Amino acid sequence: MSYATVADMVSRFGETELIQLTDPDNVAVNAALVEVKLGDAKAVIDGWIGRVYRLPLRGCIEPSATPGGPSVLAMPPQLVRLACDIARFYLFSEVAPENVVYLRHKAALKELEAIADGSAVLACPLGGSAGDLVGADAQEGLEVYFSYSPRQITDDSTRDFK
User: Fold this and answer.
1) Angle at Cα 149 formed by Cα 144 and Cα 154, nearest 5°?
2) Cα 32 to Cα 15: distance, rounded to the nearest angstrom
3) Residues linked to residue 61 through DSSP beta bridges, in sequence order
């Protein structure tokens, strides 16, 4: 499951910008190119959050569009935003360090690093859990044994060494 869609990119950055970035003829959004960049962003995100959460993520609960209908699972909203910011950065061929696209990309990477080191978490504002933590059961049911072997090199064993 992708963290963001082409529609998410259009709603965040506008169709005009995406047309300019993906179509040299300025006719329509090249959805295939945007999907490739969203896939690249997903790979980056998975690399960071995979340190903390078991992949693939379960997803947050999102209420049904129809009243009384079943709830559906969706990606945590912060991952949608991060995926869009990273994919947008990848769509640009050149970006100056003071450009907002570059700054948002750096902020996204910093936020992913905070999630990976445990100082931030993925939030599900409407309920559910983003996924299972990797460390929660990593050592479950295992006993760790450790011992030290006797010293193999001693003064007596190296006395005649030349």
Assistant:
1) 155
2) 15
3) 73
Q: What's the CA gap between 8 and 39, in Å, rounded?
A: 14
List the structure tokens of 147: 């011992």
Report how far residue 130's alpha carbon sits from residue 29's, in angstroms, rounded to the nearest whole number. 30
How many CB atoms neighbour CB 22 within 10 A?
20
Helix axes 100-117 and 77-91, enclosed angle (nearest 10): 140
d(CA 102, CA 121): 23
Sign of the alpha-carbon dihedral angle for 6, 57, 44, 83: positive
Cα–Cα distance for residue pair 133/110, rounded to 1 Å = 20
- More confident call, 13 vs 162: 13
State residue 49 phi and psi, 5-degree precision. -75, -15
Q: What is the pLDDT of residues 87-135, one digit of tens each?
A: 999 999 888 889 999 999 999 999 999 999 989 989 888 888 888 888 6
Tell me, what amino acid is at 84? C
Q: Which residue has the tokens 């998975």?
A: 46
In Å, what is the CA distance from 78 to each residue of 12, 17, 101, 106, 151?
A: 13, 22, 17, 15, 54
